[in-house]
Amino acid sequence: MSYNGLKDAETDPEESESLNKSVPDLQEAGDGPAEEGQKFIDAPDTDSKSPQANSDVSSEETRLQSAWTWMKSYAFFVYSSQALSAWGDRMWSFAVGLYLIQIEENSLRLTAAYGLSLTGSVFFFGAVVGKWVDRTPRLRAVQVSLCLQNSFVLLNALTMCALLVKKDAILEIWGGALYLVIQVLIIILGICAKLASVAQKISVQKDWIVVIAGENRSNLADMNASIRRIDLTVNILAPIVVGQIMTFVSMIAAGIFIASWNLISMFVEYCLLYNIYNKIPALSEKAKKPTAPKQENQLKRLNPLRAVVRWLQTTRKGLQIYRSYDLCWAGLGLAILYMTVMGFDSITTGYGYVLGVPEYLIGVFRALGSLAGIVGTVLFTFMRKRVGIVRSGLYSITIQITFLMLCLGSIIAPGSPFDPHFVDSRREVANLTGCLVADVEVVSYWSPGLFFSGLILSRIGLWSFDLVTSQQIQEAVIEEHRGIFNGIQSALQSYFDMIHFILVIGLPCPESFGYLVIASLLAVCTGACMYCVYSYKARGHILPHRWKACLGADSSQRLRERGIV
């Protein structure tokens, strides 16, 4: 079935937009066209009347002029700032796990505690962070979040390097108590950096981008897709750079490089965002919620008990705002997708190693997964223009589930360690929580081949679905609720991410990993059902109208009575 046929059968409100506006021409709201040289798109060829003999030279000059014009545009500033931010985040997320393993040798206890603490902090304080973004002027929110995030990552990297260098000496102080104190400090710094990162992403990717794109949804879709492509591309390159430094220089040198990057990047990112803020007056206009004098006095007399009460009130209010939008069903569907072991994380790396996949090949699979995600961003822009954004989500989640069936098949394929009757997890076998794998015997590569093939190809539907849901949140949520809505969304995603870690802790052995795959697939299907609920609320039906002819009059009538079509 072609997309053209679907388009002819069902009209979407967004199909009235021009399909040729692939790159936005940003204009200042209410101020007429943007200044010359500040347009989002490349400037047209103004030298078309040059002599034929000099056409090649003229074309080259035009390309250079267009490139220079684009480098002065809002697009360049936005994408450059997000590229710098993504590079720092990806380098640190790759390196921190290796540092934690070096600090706590032969155990993933510290690594698990670090990851669980970060996801837990977002779950508990996501709404508070979002509310703070709503109540803070845009430039101030970016200043604080950017400074805190980069500073905490810098301090954490230097702390880990110092701990690795002076590890033996620190273990002798206070009977090893100082060593534990530093580990706690590392986790606290990681939590602070994570919350600041959430605040920055909400500010820039969920709020600034909406204002910059204006009312043009095609512009917003192009910017979202481009930022996602940048992030996925960086996800391929940044670990390679850090890995090379760690391998051929030292772990300490890599830590110093990451710390230096965050220090320099902080100033460069701020300059880029400050330039955008000054060029777009709409960013300085933000609806403010005045704080009553009585509330201000309460803040001054704040004690721990009142802080807990205010946190509960903020979370409760955030959930009420979240539920007031029909879009909460789509957001909940996206959040449930985080409850899966079928993703490129430490769990997948450990399982691949159990199956006998070499380390370098796992790295190649991660890169292929990012490339598949880039394909998903292209698919998102194509489907949105063809069938509309709501139906694009249905097709995207269907693509993801289809390819994840390969992962389901891998648990019964030759070479799979899955044992439905396995119950004894105490014997010395390779498990997914950090025990050393011994005597791995590769029986067949069918199981790992199917598992990683499904994992890689499912990224196409996953990242397309992520963009679909993110853009609908940007379009539907009003300005006053963007921060707290996205804060609740981040909290829900962290909640289901925590559940997936708990499931792995409960079923840590490779013989029981098949149950985790089944549970993960059921979670994805549940997320798809949640999105179908939203699709029905938004469009009044789920199945395309052209299917009615295939179903027949009687069947169509029965489905209509049930509200399916």
* Main sheet properties: none
* Structure class: mainly alpha
Average pLDDT confidence is 78
Q: Topology as H/E string?
A: HHHHHHHHHHHHHHHHHHHH
Overall number of strands: 0
Low-confidence segments, given as residue ranges, are: 1-49, 290-300, 424-440
User: What is the radius of gyration computed over CA atoms, rounded to a whole number of angstroms?
Assistant: 26 Å
β-sheet strand percentage: under 5%
List keywords for this structure.
single chain; 565 residues; mainly alpha; globular; disordered N terminus
Description:
There is one protein chain. This protein is mainly α and 565 residues long. It contains 20 helices and no strands.
